[in-house]
Write a structure and sequence with these properties.
alpha+beta; Jelly Rolls; 2 domains; 8-stranded antiparallel β-sheet; about 25% strand
């Protein structure tokens, strides 16, 4: 770690207790790279110990996330309508999705939250989704500021190849808003379909893939949220840690 990271960790521990970052510090030990991981988590770069090794989660099981889940599902018809209008009339608001592993032109994104902040231009393009995200994820602190939220549209024939995302301390929420027959997602070997108007929640440090074999586009609203089993001091330290690592990698 750098002196800046060490100093920040000491501040957090002085406020929350000497053991408040024990799991984060353990995660950074070199020997943790492959120990105590599920076989389908091996490609993730960082695995915070103590997070349950459960690929699929019940989106209604976590009080912290439930207001967002309920709000998105309640407003799903309006969110879908606004997306359809944007897709038809404001296509310039969409861009190729840039995953850390790949960029795909048959995977389109309309960003609601990115680079640690809401995307102001999306408020006019997708006002209901923007408002739900702001009120129930950003203002409440459940969104992971290291990542993003966006409308994710897979064009017909698009395939997202099997991969693990970077870490297990955030979790991925999907609201299904436009799902053709032949579209599905597989996480840790278990395939599930999306159901329009409903959410799915999964740990994307596990190997996962998705496809759209349908005749029309598949669209979900995706939100990267803090894993409910992380603590507030851990979230603070992880945000600083990963931000510094990203800076060093970009230098």
């Amino acid at each position: 770690m750098t002196p800046e990271i060490d100093a920040y960790f000491e501040v957090v521990k002085s406020e929350h207790g000497a053991d408040s970052l024990a799991r984060v510090e353990e995660m950074l030990e070199p020997r943790r790279r492959s120990e105590q991981r599920h076989p389908l988590q091996q490609a993730a770069k960082w695995v915070l110990p103590g997070i349950p090794q459960v690929p699929w989660h019940d989106p209604y099981a976590y009080p912290e996330l439930l207001p967002l889940v309920n709000a998105l599902e309640a407003e799903s018809a309006q969110i879908k309508s606004e997306h359809e209008l944007a897709w038809a009339q404001r296509r310039a608001s969409f861009s190729d999705y840039e995953h850390y592993l790949v960029r795909q032109n048959n995977w389109q994104a309309l960003y609601l939250y990115r680079d640690g902040a809401l995307v102001p231009d999306s408020a006019a393009v997708a006002p209901t989704a923007y408002r739900m995200l702001k009120e129930h994820a950003v203002d409440t602190g459940v969104i992971c500021p290291l990542l993003e939220s966006h409308f994710s549209t897979l064009l017909p024939g698009a395939v997202i190849k099997p991969h693990c995302d970077l870490w297990n301390f955030s979790i991925n929420l999907h609201l299904a808003i436009d799902i053709p027959e032949g579209a599905a997602i597989r996480v840790a070997g278990e395939t599930r379909p999306w159901e329009e108007g409903k959410t799915l929640l999964f740990d994307y440090s596990f190997e996962h893939e998705a496809w759209n074999k349908g005749a029309t586009a598949r669209t979900c609203v995706l939100a990267d949220l803090w894993h409910p089993d992380t603590t507030l001091p851990e979230r603070s330290a992880l945000t600083m840690l990963m931000t510094e690592i990203q800076k060093m990698m970009a230098a």
